[in-house]
Amino acid sequence: MRQLPVARGLVYLVVAGVAWGTAGAAASLVFRVSDLGPGALSFWRCVGGLLLLVAVRALRRTPAPVSYETRGRKAVRLGVLGLSLAVFQTAYFAAVQATGLAVGTVVALGAGPVLIAVGARVLLGERLGVGGLLSVAGALGGLAVLVLCGGDAAVRPLGVVWALLSAAGYAVMTLLTRWFGRHGEAGNGLGTTVGTFAVASLALLPLGAVEGLVPHTGHHLAVLGLLAYIASVPTALAYALYFAGAAVVRSATVSVITLLEPVGAAVIAVTLLGEDLTAATVAGTALMLAAVTGLAVAEARSTR
């Protein structure tokens, strides 16, 4: 099977990171106009993304790629990826609910690159080098400035635990995607995403049912429109690009590039939600963009 070029994988990851940045604003609007809970929102996000991806796959009518893994190995791969995705998304929503957006974001997204960098070094033998370490440090510093300096932040232990669990789910998902890609078992990005979302939807169904899958209050048409957007752009599109790109790009680089999520969220907050453009927003965004650019250039050079 022909492997995706690394340069294109980098572009895919950048687009995925920016698209993910719009999910937080859309989710905030869902919580504002309805009583839908985080577990139910995660369930509908996965189900909606799954339906869209299945439809796209059917319209493309392309032959399935050649795979050398057994059905059992494929089931294990998709099962672990799906459970990791369910944990990553739902624990993050729970962290935001328990300790607020600022602390939940900085702990979950900040711990992710650290866990991935350590895991990539121990499990995959990937080295960052001095430049890579500086880029990761710059990205984490930019994230802290961008999120924590924008207002009051209250640290609550339960929220921190949820955020760390979210980071662990993201780290497992990223490391496994890279490992499978290196061993020729990643399939294609679309097929992997479809299977992963099917498993995540099944895993989230009981939690969503407990919370209530249908909102009892709020503007139902507005909720449907927001869910349709969440399922399409920051879910179906973003995760298909993520799984394709993460299979060919070093894990630590993936973790830093996808930190573009809070950058995208900050841009939306300023341009669409009317928030003030503060010095912290500018400085944090600049630091993170510089770190992402540095790692992308290093990744491109290492593959020549």
Structure description:
The protein is an all-alpha fold. It contains eleven helices and no strands. The protein has helices spanning about 5-35, 40-60, 70-100, 100-125, 130-150, 155-180, 190-210, 220-245, 250-255, 260-270, 280-300. α1 (about 5-35) packs antiparallel against α8 and α4 (about 100-125) packs antiparallel against α9 (about 250-255). The longest helix has 29 residues, at about 70-100. The protein is globular and about 55 Å long. The mean pLDDT is about 75.
How would you summarize the topology of this molecule?
Blueprint: H1 6-33, H2 38-60, H3 71-99, H4 101-124, H5 129-148, H6 157-182, H7 189-211, H8 220-246, H9 251-257, H10 260-271, H11 279-302
Helix pairs in contact: 1-8, 1-10, 2-7, 2-8, 3-4, 3-6, 3-7, 4-5, 4-6, 4-9, 5-11, 7-8
Q: Which descriptors apply to this entry?
A:
membrane; mainly alpha; AA-Vitamin_Transporters; 304 residues; single chain; EmrE-like; transmembrane
Provide a brief overview of the structure.
The protein is an all-alpha fold. It has helices at residues 6-33, 38-60, 71-99, 101-124, 129-148, 157-182, 189-211, 220-246, 251-257, 260-271, 279-302.
Main beta-sheet annotation: none
Strand content: under 5%
Q: Between the first and last Cα atoms, what is the distance in angstroms?
A: 20 Å
Determine the fraction of residues in helical runs and give it as a percent range. over 70%
